[in-house]
Amino acid sequence: MAVAKISKAEFYIHKSEADKVLSILQNTGSYEIIPFNSEEEPEGQVIAHPDLSRVDFLLGETRYLLRFLEPHYDDPVSGLARAMGDKDELSLKEAAELDKKTDVPAAANEVRKLERRLMEIRSEVAQIDTSVSLLEPLEEFPYPLELLSSGTERVRGVLGTLPISQVENWSREAEALLGKRSEVYIAPVGEREKYRFVALFFEAPLSGDVAEFNGAFTFNRVEIPASLRSGVLQELALLEDRRAALVAEEQDVLAGVEEAAEKWVAVARKLNDYFSVLRDRYEALSRGGATEKVVMLRGWIPDSNLPEIKKSLAAFDSSIELVVTEPEPEDDVPSLMANSAWCLPFENLTRLYGVPGYGELDPTPLMAPFFFVFFGMCLGDAGYGLIMIGLFTWFLKKYRKMPRGFSEFFKLFVLSGVSTVIVGALTGSWFGDLVDAFGIFSFLRPLKNLPVILNPMDDPMTFLGLSLALGVFQLLFGLGVSFFDALRRKDYMAAYADSGAWIVFLTGLLVWGIALAGFMSSGWEAFGKTVAIFGAIVLLATQGREKTGFISRAISGVLSLYGATSYLGDVLSYSRLLALGLATSAVGVIINMLAGLAGDIPFVGWALALLLIVGGHVFSIAVNVLGAFVHSLRLQYVEFFSKFYSGGGRAFSPLAYNTSYVSIKKEPVE
Amino acid sequence: MDLLGIALAIFGAAMAAGWAGAGSAIGVGIAGESGAGVMTEDPGKFGLVLLLQALPGTQGIYGLLIAFFAILKVGLLGGGAEVTVNVWQGLAIFFACLPIAVGGYYSAIAQGKTSAASIQMIAKRPEETGKAVILPAMVETYAVLSLLMSIILLNGIKL
Questions:
Q1: Is the model's pLDDT at B55 over the cut of 70?
Q2: Distance from the A221 Cα atom to the nearest Cα atom in chain B, whole angstroms
Q3: Which of A243, A294, A519, B112 could form a disulfide with B30 if both were Cys (CB 3.0 to 4.6 A apart)?
Q4: Which residue among A353, A579, A623 places its CB closest to the CB of B130?
Q5: Do B65 and A587 touch (CB under 8 A)?
Q6: Do residues B111 and B58 lie in contact, with contact meaning Cβ atoms separated by under 8 Å?
Q7: Same fold, A1-47+288-331 and A142-230
Q8: Do A575 and B134 touch (CB under 8 A)?
Q9: Burial of A183 by CB count in 10 Å (0-12 exposed, 13-18 middle, 19+ buried)?
Q10: Entry pTM
Q11: What CATH architecture is B3-156?
Q12: Burial of A82 by CB count in 10 Å (0-12 exposed, 13-18 middle, 19+ buried)?
């Protein structure tokens, strides 16, 4: 139960062996490299691996291939399954061979050509679509479009839109002004309602006059692309043909893309992971320092992994110097939690809050039993618990190669399910009151009633008392932990004056209160009072001891006693155990009741009832599991951790195989 | 007079289910808007976003719960024995429904805003999901306390 011990390890390696040594370190996956600070160590020069730029370039190419091809790839393994650890295994040797015989840039260029062609086709189709939508309203236009787009030697034309109200005026004035040297065309439709397409043809020298004339109206000129020359219908037919040809070609290119995806995605994934593994290693090298012949690496190794690393580097004995030292107080040591198997599933919860700092206490084993019990109380329905156990066990069985983080989370849910079944059985809740609500389950009733010790629906006050008592216990336990932690750190003042005094003060208040309420004999009342007063005096005397001056110390001492109200709030916060437990059972009861009512409907009633029971309970499980998880977690984080844990550590992140698509086989240590 | 008692109890139930539900709808809506924004950038966050969006939805369920408790108590829901409820008892049931009606409504909206902020947080720092879930849960505490009080009050009313 603790944070693993970590040592500082410095390697001095002959340059020629540096890459090999790093690959072995990467294989063991337990060495975190500290970047060399070149300002402190001016003699250190940055070393770039000769292969780095090649790998960088190839990594870019495989990423490009994957980005473009993956949407066209019919993946045999679903994304979910891959996240659950369903990955191909690959050894570095196989990957290196694959790298040697694959010409990634050629493949990428091939694919780029396809991509470019696809883009060209799509932009041309878009152009055609614009032209078609422009020409369609002009279907009855009687002249070749050439007149409008480029004009002939003598005649020019302009096309535009006019508001309907101006059309008549415009055509009359055009004739009046330009007379025989022009001609007017008015289309039967317009671009929008209330507008008409109109065209004006005129002798070339009149261009200036026409522009001026049109300027007097709300005339919006429409440009016809120069490529359109013949009659409208003819051009439309041509465009249609071209479009059909392009669409057909697009299909061909897409088929090519799919073929390429089939051929390359699997390979590119393997290589992508291989290159990123290489890249990590080369970057690690560049973080070391170097002299002319020697590379220096500085980093952290968990003590438990030291023998393994020493053993796997035995072959390089002559060219390596390894110096292992204790971390110094000013070092920023990463932390790695090392817990025994029973509380591993709960480690994730600590990680969600923040890993412990190096040398700090790991709260996982202390919190685990509480979370277990609280989750059970918040969900509190044996039927729901059974479903959780079944579902998550099935997941664990189906995806055996799941990454550790996932599998531990799933185990956490199985454990939570177990706790839920226990609490549910003790309170007699199986899918709400399913067993009592329907006659067909009556044979189960005696069995269900056997382990019941308390029904929170009938007796909520007892359950509330139980919840608050658990709260008091956890809070005092948290203070106790803080007490012993301070002793361990040899901070005796914090141990006795802070945690210790609070424990004494609160216990005294508690005994006094219970005795006052008449649950204990009156002798206890005086005892509790004395203890509480003693605790209060210690607090008064010691709180604010960092302050200077008698008065400000006395004031902080008095004010600190008000901290008691925050403990009161903390305890009351545990009432959620009752409220959420009740909410689950009540929602279950309501679902069963509605199903019972629906069951009375003739003919279809049984089907409706079944639907309501299944759908309702599935909904209820989803909502209540979320609630139970969040709230039992909150009690740990807010009420429990705040007493002794800060969680400001930095997680240990060693040089290892970090891959997305395949898993790299670890070479066994001989 | 008996009918007025029943009507008051129903009034209480309606307030509990209605207001708490309205609050949850607003809260889930606020969180959902924020979530949709985040997912335009990264659709892969759907699972996390949905989880955070669902958090302000519980108040509606608590309200429904109290409404059911209230009408069960006055025997409006099938199977229950005939109960007579006088005006004072009906009024008492009405008051007992108020904590979750008021507490549920306001806490759901506040929780929705916190959820929306948390969703923005996981958009930038997905590794901090644990903390992002706890912040809205802090707000929910007060809805749970309201629920608890409504349950205890309803439980205490003698018919």
A1: yes
A2: 39
A3: B112
A4: A353
A5: yes
A6: no
A7: yes
A8: no
A9: middle
A10: 0.80
A11: Up-down Bundle (1.20)
A12: middle
Topology of domain A142-230 in CATH is Alpha-Beta Plaits (3.30.70)
Q: Is the separation of the CB atoms in A25 and A655 below 8 Å? A: yes
Q: Give which of B28, B68, B150, B151 to mutate to test A binding, by max A Cβ within 10 Å.
A: B151
Residue in chain A nearest B56 by alpha carbon: A627
**A410 exposure class (CB count in 10 Å sphere: 0-12, 13-18, 19+):** buried
Which residue blocks in A181-226 are alpha helix, DSSP H?
207-215
| Contact by Cβ (8 Å): B9, B85 | yes
CA of B142 to nearest chain A CA: how many angstroms apart?
A: 9
For A420, phi then psi, to 5°, come to -65, -40
Instruction: List, for residues A198-222, the tens digit of each pLDDT value.
Output: 888 888 777 777 778 888 888 888 8
* Substitution target from A576, A592, A600, A646 for chain B, most B beta carbons within 10 A: A576
Nearest to B144 among A580, A626, A633 (CB): A580
Query: Chain A contact for B102, CB < 8 A?
Result: no
B88 to chain A, closest Cα gap in Å:
24
Provide the chain B residues 40-59 that lie in CB contact (below 8 A) with chain A.
51, 54-55, 57-58
Task: Name the amino acid, one letter, at A297.
Answer: L
DSSP readout, A373-397?
A: HHHHHHH--HHHHHHHHHHHHHHHH
Residues 6+ apart with CB under 8 A from A431: A381, A383, A384, A588, A592, A613, A617
The full DSSP string for A133-189 is HHHGGGTT--S-THHHHT--SSEEEEEEEEEHHHHHHHHHHHHHHHGGGEEEEE-SS
Mutate to test the interface with B, among A351, A464, A575 (most CBs of B within 10 A): A575
What does the pLDDT read at residue A437? Answer: 83
Spatial contact of A343 and A368, defined as CB atoms under 8 Å apart: yes
Task: Encode pLDDT of A418-427 as tens digits.
Answer: 999 999 999 9
Mark yes or no for CB contact B58/A623 under 8 Å.
yes
Nearest CA in chain A to B68: A590
Are the C-beta atoms of B52 and B122 separated by less than 8 Å? yes
Q: Where are the beta strands (DSSP E) in A337-473?
A: 337-338
- Architecture per CATH, domain A1-47+288-331, reads as 2-Layer Sandwich (3.30)
List the domain boundaries for chain A.
1-47+288-331, 48-129+237-279, 142-230, 341-490+575-643
* pLDDT of A607 above 50: yes
Contact (CB<8Å) A586/B129:
no
Of B62, B134, B152, the CB nearest to A583: B62
Q: Write down the domain spans for chain B.
A: 3-156
> Could you report the per-residue pLDDT of A126-150, keeping only the tens digit for each?
999 988 888 887 777 888 887 787 7
Max Cα distance, chain A (Å): 125
